[in-house]
Write a structure and sequence with these properties.
mainly beta; single chain
Length: about 350
Amino acid sequence: MENILGYCQPGNFDKKVDLPPPPYDAAITQNTEPLELPLSGNLELSENDVYEALLNHVSKFICYGKGVVKEMIIIKMEQFYAYRHSLETFTENRQVCWSYEPYAGGHIDGPLMKQCYDPWEITVDPLRQFDRHNVKLIMPHTEMLQACPDCGGAGRIECAFCHGKGKMTCNTCNGSGYTFGFSGEDRQMCVHCFSGTVTCAHCKGKGIHGCSICSEAGEIKCYVQLIVHWNNYTDSSLIEHSSDIPKDILKKATGELVYDEINDRIKPIRYLLGDKENKSVVDLINKHIARYFSKAKPLAHKQRIQRIPITKVTYVWRNSTNKFWVFGNEKTVYAPHYQQKCCCGCTIQ
């Protein structure tokens, strides 16, 4: 770091150095009073809702029979809830590197003016929260002048195509000054060059051209560039009671948004339910902190909780007892043991 922010000769332009973020104090989260989240409201389905959901499900399959839906007798409906907890953190990373630009005159804010700041001491506000973007700026008191490394301070460099001669070999006559007919005997003077050489098109015969690095100024202004990156990191977990619905199916469902807030610190959330849900929230927060906060500075946190309704339906059809589940705002049906399936397999319409 001293070699970059100290005052040695600049070099390795654009070689970026990652700056570790300030250490995160986990006690800030641990000592924050948990938010009590009362989950009130009734999301239970009626029998008509259940019949309609199962009928819609069966109608998607060509080979499924609808007799079960029309003839079944519902004997029990049980209500459960699953919870999707998501935690998104808006973070900041910083890098520094030597950079330069042509010197066009003016004041040089160098190290003799004032001691250079630590990169994390400079206040840089994001343009938008929870939006990935970056900004670049010059670190105060790091500017210095240097002779242009490309032209040595001359402002002009030798043409690389003609090597400073201003002339190049004619491609038409290959430098002989003459062209020949098909028989090789009809020698004529080359009408393109008349001499075997042509004026270099790149430098227009001057043998030199203006230096593009310093814009012909002969000097460049070097400085330490600060690059600030803002990024988002997200973790989520699905918390459920024993509903017997496979998790990969249940995770596609949506539910009622019961919590949606942005805070400058992570607030643990305590459901008014049981230890399992509360532990899942704490586990997600701890995993999130361990995964991201050592490599990025957290600025803001967005937490969301969805409550996903699940209805377990037990029914009788032709003296056979069976069950299925209806879940989510979509009223998706999970019926792995539906009795009227065709053995040849089905396709979804």
